[in-house]
Structures are given as C-alpha cells and as structure tokens.
C-alpha cells in the first residue's frame, strides 16, 4: 500500500478538477490535487519575446510553460498546463448549453449516435452554483468607461442581419466587489477563503490579454476561486506533479503513479478511495488508454465521440462600424465581450442547420505591431515614399524628418480595424482518440461537419460585409485543418457501457469510485463555450459522490479512520434518507437506477386529485416530470420496509413557469399502504417555481387488492398534489394545496423505462433479477388470488 493515502485524488486543476477539489474538501474529505503545470500569480505571465519562447509545455525539452500545443492528422489544438488549467488562457465566457442542444439518439455519419444522458434541467442548479462561485456578469457595455467599439460593431451587425445578439456572462471582475460600480484598475476585495497567490488583484483594464494570462488578476480564474477555496478547506495543491498511470488497489480504491517535475525529479505513488480524472480531454483519455490493461471491463467506447466543439477562427480586416467611420480597435476590451447565436434545427425555429455561436475576438495591444507587419504591400509603399522624401530632403537641405517618419509609420489602419471572429457550435463528434506507438493520436476531419463550418463561414462573411471589411481565414498553408481550443470527448458519458465510458454522473462503468470530471466525458459538442458545462457536470458529479459516501474522515498523516452513521452530505429531510443511501463498504454493494416519465394535468384550486379529473383540463394545465430513480444499495433497499430511493430530474408545467429542476426528491416503492393487501408508490419532489417560490409535488400510486385487470391502471396512475413550500412527509394536511390531478405513464414511456435499468457493482445481473422478483412478488401479494 502506498505511504500516502487520501480520501480523494484529483488529477488536473481545470474546470472539472478545481470544482471537484473544492466540493470534496469542503465536505471534509482529505483531498490532494495533482497538477502537472506550475502556479502563475498575477504579474508572472510571460510578455517579453524571451519569456514567451519559454511559455510552452514540453518537459523533455525543459519547458514548463502553460501552452501545450498538439498537432494531429486532422486538427491542431492548444490547451493549458498550470494551476487553474484552461481558465488561465480561456476567454472567460460562461454560457450554458442550450436546452434543446442536449440531443438524444442523433445519428452520426460514422455510425452510432450522439446522445446526452443529462438534460438542461439536470444541470441548471449546478450552473447556478458555478456562476455564483465565479461571480459571472455580462460585460458592462453601458458604463462609459467600458463602451468599446468592437462590441458596438457586433451589436450593429447583428441588428442589420436580423441575428440574435447578446452580452454573455463573463468570469471577470469589472467592479471591486459584487454590486459595486464598475471601474478600471480598482483593487478587488479579497474573498473570505483568501487567495493562493497572496497578490492583490485589480479590475479589468481592457488590455485584451485574457488569452495569454491576466497579469492584473481581473479574471476570476480557478486559481483565484475554486482552488483557493479548496486549499482553505484543507486540500493540498501539488503543482509540477504529473499523473502517469492509474490502477485499482487491492481492497478497493485506486493508486496513481506520478512524476515530479521539481528540480531533482523523482516519482511516487499515492493511494485513494476515490479518483477523479480531470486532466483534460487529451490527458484523461491518454491516462485511460495507457491504463486499460489495469482497468478490465472499460467500455469499448473509450476514445470515441471526439470533437473540436465546432471551433473556427477568422479575421475581419479593415473593419469599421456601420457608419464606416469608427475603427474597431479590437485590442481594447476583454478578448470576448459579445456573442451572436445561430439557431439549431432542434430549436424548432425557421433556422436550419446545427447551432453555433460567433463571438468578437480581441488580442493584446502589443500585437497591433505584428498586425501592421502583415500589411506587407502598404509597408513597402510607405518605405518607398520615405526613401523618395529623403532624396528630396537631401537636395533641398530639409533637416526635419518628423513628417517623413510619421508617414513611414502609416496610419495604423489595419491594426485599428482588424477584428478576429471566433466561431463554435455543434459539429459532429465522430473523431477517435487512440494510441500509436505509445503516443496519443486523433483520427478526425471536418468532412461530416462541413455543413456546420460553411454556415459559420457564410455568417462571418455577412458580418464582414456589414462592417465594410475583408473576410480572411487561417493562412492557406494550413489547408482545411481545424484549430481547436475546445477538444471534447474520448471518454463519453452514456446510459450503459455500450454507449459510454462513464454514467451521467461521471462514474466509470464497472469501476466504482473512478470518476471523469472534464471535457473527456462529454458525449458531443456543447455548442457554446464548454467551460461552464464542464464545471456544472463536475459539481453534479461531486454532489452524487458525496451523497453516496459514508461519513469517513481519514487522517492522511496518521492513517486513523473515524466513522459515523449517515452520509454527512444530505441534510435532514422528510425521510430518514441517510440510512438507505449508505450501507457498508462501497465496493461490496450494488446500486440500481432507472428513469421514468409521467404526463397528465393538474387542476389549479383543486385539493383532491380524485375529484380533479373533471375540472383539470379547463382550469389547469399539462404537467410532466422525468425522473431518474437511484438506489445506492439494493440489498438494503429491499430489506427496508419503506423501500426508499432518491429521485432526481425535472417537473415541467406552464403554471410553474416551464421546466423546473428537482432540488431534492424521494421515491418509495411498494411502501405499506395501511392494509396487508395494499401498497403505495410514493413520490415527493421539492423544486422552485419561476416566481422564486418553493413548491412540492407529492404523488402516490394506489396499489390495492382487486381484479388483475386493474394492475396496469393502478401502477400507471399517479394521484398528484402540488403544494406551496417544501413540505416534509407527514405534513401534507397542514400544507396549502395549489392544485391536484393525475399523471400517467404511457406504454411507450414504460418501454423506455425498462430499457433504462442499470446496475453498478458486483453481481449486477443477479441484483437486477432480485429486484425483478421483488417487484413481481409484491404485485402477486396484492393482486393474486386469496
């Protein structure tokens, strides 16, 4: 056994790893983060040519910088290495994945389907949590100090073309504290958890340097937020530690072999009960491919569903605003301030094609000199004029060179009017990551996604036309290669091992305690900038991990273990839920889950669901819920008389303001119904309406003795009440009822439910059979002769 052992090891410190480290450490677990790169405090990011030459990642060549550049057969990629991962060099945009872009069973040209086992409703509460932690806010365009030309130009172009334009949320501090007035270069108030760098941060000064590291600390990058908070709660952040191999540990848990890049080098092994892989799409997939021999049973989908999130870069040259009088000046402002959205077929609008975003780009002011150098034709002309003027001055003995030098410099028209455009969207995830000679390789090209890329190019050309600009793409010597900063896939999530490497919570099938928390787990493109979605999935993963753990506080230095009853993660609720969610050794128990969807009508103002049937269609509205029922320990579930499980998902009704995520939910299967031949299937869902007010959906299926012909009706009809407030079980009589009615499961939905059954843990097939015998036995007890 390794000398070091932790409750959790997190490999990587990007949007997945940082979120997981904070959530697990704040819940009391001993956590260590292994980050291959080094820490970059504000003021330490490279700027000079000498510094930039060392800013790349290649330890074999003695380079430990933050840019890691990959070149494959069909694409090139730039990813990050450093404490904070991709947040060090991304452009701060925190857009949610569009609701209808969580596609299901969408065919892929190369075979198979893009299918997301999570929904927008599943992620919305986790999106909320990440946005709060990163303090996201739209660009303050209406503040005079932040009114920049490139943002107005994009707004005007979108209006002219009838396109949807928005100011997306940015993880940037424009004000010194939340709620304060924005200002440039102001000291930022320190968070309660402090900062790992110990350096004062300042608000954005519009320098366009987001993508090369923010030397002011204006970006709310992960080192300033989640990782600082994780360290505050006891997590160890080990930089220049690169994971090289992983394997199961005898008796449960995992071991990680790592390499130290500190002077003197060296290697080591660390043990853990739970292992979270968050080394990025390339790093995580590479680790799994290398360790495949030690992880028997890994899904055959490992390496698949790779995509570049539809990334496409173009340049508008000599662009001005709609009046054609004001230069763009793209070097002023954050890298991205605004976005134009192209609708998707799935949005059910008049648009056709795969959804996409086009965003204004920016670059540091010192790049203006390089941009001017690109204008070779004009530069030669200016030089020729300068020589001619010098000959004239020699003859006329004119000693003043000011005008001539000014002419040689030019009017800087190109740099003042160049605007990068950044496109991304729902390309086709048909690429594959594999090992060749022990090295990672990608087989992927843009052929299946050509329609997407051409749609984005065409829209960029239309924007160029409105702004009177020349539209240019990457240099011709790059051919049709794609450059992506958003590689995704490789270890995709799915509903079962035939569809993905991990489940919808990131846990690897048949390897309990091994989680994937980064872009590798995505089964397809996000369409929007993926950082927020990756972080939200990691937050959701952490919630599941904590809810399913026993309370175990392990002293990593002394090896002592203290245990208490309960999960320590789920607050007291309407049931004694903690007991049924935790039982014994995690490695010895089998979990089971399935999905269920029911639809019907709720009559507002009706308290009794049995009397609401006549009035509901005229006074109420359609109501639907979709739930995933999760049983953490099947043996304990079957033994307990209440047969309690967790319910997660969403409730959708117009009178609630649309689809609302279930914040907490409980399900009882065949609980005692007050008589030997009576059972109830109970549902209790807590959620919040669009008006911000809490509500409870409580329902029951009344399974009682009668003719066998009633079996389908009884088990498919849910008598339902919607009540004000989050109402615990046993307090329904005191609660105010908003409405009542009945929901039903349709035969096609039942078929989908049966297909969704999944077990994890030892003896899964036998566990599923035990569950089936229990279910049928309960029905026989109720409806059988006697």
TrEMBL record:
Residues of the Glucose-methanol-choline oxidoreductase C-terminal domain? 484-538
Instruction: Kindly give the Gene3D superfamilies that the UniProt entry links to this protein.
Output: FAD/NAD(P)-binding domain (3.50.50.60)
Asked if the record carries the keyword Zinc, the reply is no
Q: Which UniProt keywords apply?
A: Cholesterol metabolism, FAD, Flavoprotein, Isomerase, Lipid metabolism, Oxidoreductase, Steroid metabolism, Sterol metabolism
Q: Write out the transmembrane intervals.
A: none
Q: Which cofactor does it need?
A: FAD
Q: Which residues form the Glucose-methanol-choline oxidoreductase N-terminal domain?
A: 203-291
InterPro entries hit by this protein: Cholesterol_Oxidase (IPR052542), Cyt_B5_heme-BS (IPR018506), FAD/NAD-bd_sf (IPR036188), GMC_OxRdtase_N (IPR000172), GMC_OxRtase_C (IPR007867)
Pathway listed? Steroid metabolism; cholesterol degradation
| Keyword Flavoprotein appears in the UniProt entry | yes
Q: Name one Pfam family in it.
A: GMC_oxred_C
The EC number on file is 1.1.3.6, 5.3.3.1
On the tree of life, the source organism's domain of life is Bacteria
Q: Which family does it belong to?
A: Belongs to the GMC oxidoreductase family.
Its protein name is: Cholesterol oxidase
* Gene source species: Sphaerisporangium dianthi
Record lineage: Bacteria, Bacillati, Actinomycetota, Actinomycetes, Streptosporangiales
């Amino acid at each position: 056994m390794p000398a070091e052992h932790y409750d959790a090891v997190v490999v990587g410190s990007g949007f997945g790893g940082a979120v997981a480290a904070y959530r697990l450490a704040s819940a009391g677990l001993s956590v260590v983060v292994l980050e291959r790169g080094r820490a970059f405090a504000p003021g330490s990011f490279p700027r000079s040519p000498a510094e930039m030459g060392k800013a790349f990642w290649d330890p074999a060549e003695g380079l430990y910088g933050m840019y890691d550049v990959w070149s494959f057969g069909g694409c090139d990629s730039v990813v990050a290495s450093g404490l904070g991962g991709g947040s060090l060099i991304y452009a701060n945009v925190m857009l949610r994945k569009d609701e209808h872009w969580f596609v299901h069973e969408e065919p892929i040209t190369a075979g198979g389907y893009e299918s997301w086992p999570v929904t927008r409703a599943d992620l919305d509460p986790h999106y909320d949590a990440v946005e709060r932690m990163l303090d996201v806010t739209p660009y303050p365009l209406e503040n005079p100090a932040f009114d920049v030309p490139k943002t107005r130009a994009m707004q005007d172009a979108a209006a002219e073309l009838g396109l949807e334009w928005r100011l997306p949320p940015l993880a940037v501090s424009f004000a010194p504290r939340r709620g304060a007035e924005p200002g440039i270069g102001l000291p930022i108030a320190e968070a309660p958890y402090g900062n790992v760098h110990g350096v004062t941060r300042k608000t954005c000064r519009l320098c366009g340097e987001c993508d090369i590291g923010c030397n002011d600390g204006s970006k709310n990058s992960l080192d300033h937020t989640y990782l600082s908070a994780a360290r505050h709660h006891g997590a160890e952040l080990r930089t220049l530690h690169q994971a090289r191999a992983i394997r199961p540990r005898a008796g449960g848990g995992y071991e990680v072999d790592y390499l130290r890049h500190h002077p003197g080098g060296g290697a080591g092994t660390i043990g853990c009960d739970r292992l979270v892989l968050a080394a990025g799409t390339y790093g995580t997939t590479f680790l799994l491919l290398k360790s495949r021999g030690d992880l028997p049973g890994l899904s055959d989908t490992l390496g698949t569903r790779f995509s570049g999130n539809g990334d496409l870069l173009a340049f508008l040259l000599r662009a001005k605003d709609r009046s054609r009088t004001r230069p763009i000046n793209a070097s002023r402002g954050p890298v991205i301030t605004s976005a134009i959205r192209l609708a998707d077929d799935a949005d059910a609008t008049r648009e056709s094609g795969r959804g996409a975003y086009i965003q204004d780009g920016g670059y540091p002011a010192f790049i203006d000199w390089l941009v001017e150098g690109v204008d070779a034709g004009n530069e030669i002309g200016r030089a020729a004029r300068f020589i001619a003027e010098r000959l004239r001055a020699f003859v006329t003995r004119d000693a003043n060179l000011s005008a001539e030098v000014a002419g040689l410099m030019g009017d800087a028209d190109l740099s003042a009017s160049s605007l990068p455009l950044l496109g991304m969207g729902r390309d086709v995830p048909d690429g594959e990551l594999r090992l060749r000679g022990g090295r990672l390789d990608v087989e992927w090209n843009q052929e299946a996604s050509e329609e997407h890329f051409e749609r984005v190019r065409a829209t960029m050309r239309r924007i160029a036309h409105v702004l009177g600009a020349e539209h240019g793409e990457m240099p011709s010597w790059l051919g049709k290669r794609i450059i992506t900063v958003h590689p995704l896939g490789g270890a995709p999530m799915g509903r079962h091992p035939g569809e993905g490497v991990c489940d919808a919570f990131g846990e690897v099938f048949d390897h309990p305690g091994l989680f994937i928390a980064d872009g590798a787990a995505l089964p397809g493109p996000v369409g929007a900038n993926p950082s927020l979605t990756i972080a939200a999935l990691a937050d959701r993963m952490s919630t599941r991990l904590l809810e399913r753990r026993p309370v175990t506080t392990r002293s990593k230095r002394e090896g002592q273990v203290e245990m208490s009853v309960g999960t320590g993660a789920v607050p007291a609720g309407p049931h004694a839920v903690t007991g049924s969610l935790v039982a014994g050794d995690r490695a010895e128990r089998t979990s089971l889950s399935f999905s269920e969807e029911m639809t019907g009508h709720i009559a507002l103002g009706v308290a009794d669901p049995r009397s609401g049937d006549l009035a509901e269609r005229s006074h109420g509205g359609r109501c639907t819920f979709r739930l995933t029922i999760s049983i953490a320990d099947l043996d304990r579930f079957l033994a307990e008389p209440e047969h309690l499980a967790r319910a997660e998902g969403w409730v959708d009704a117009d009178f609630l303001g649309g689809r609302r995520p279930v914040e907490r939910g409980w399900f009882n299967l065949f609980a005692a119904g007050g008589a030997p031949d009576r059972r109830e299937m109970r549902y209790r869902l807590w959620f919040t309406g669009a008006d911000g007010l809490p509500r409870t959906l409580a329902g029951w299926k009344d399974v009682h003795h009668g003719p066998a012909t009633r079996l389908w009706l009884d088990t498919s009809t849910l008598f339902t009440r919607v009540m004000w407030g989050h109402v615990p079980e046993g307090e329904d009589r005191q609660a105010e009822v908003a409405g009542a009615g009945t929901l039903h499961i349709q035969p096609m939905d039942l078929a989908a439910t049966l297909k969704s059954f999944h077990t994890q843990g030892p003896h899964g097939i036998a566990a599923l059979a035990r569950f089936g015998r229990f279910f049928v036995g309960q029905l026989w007890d109720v409806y059988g002769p006697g």
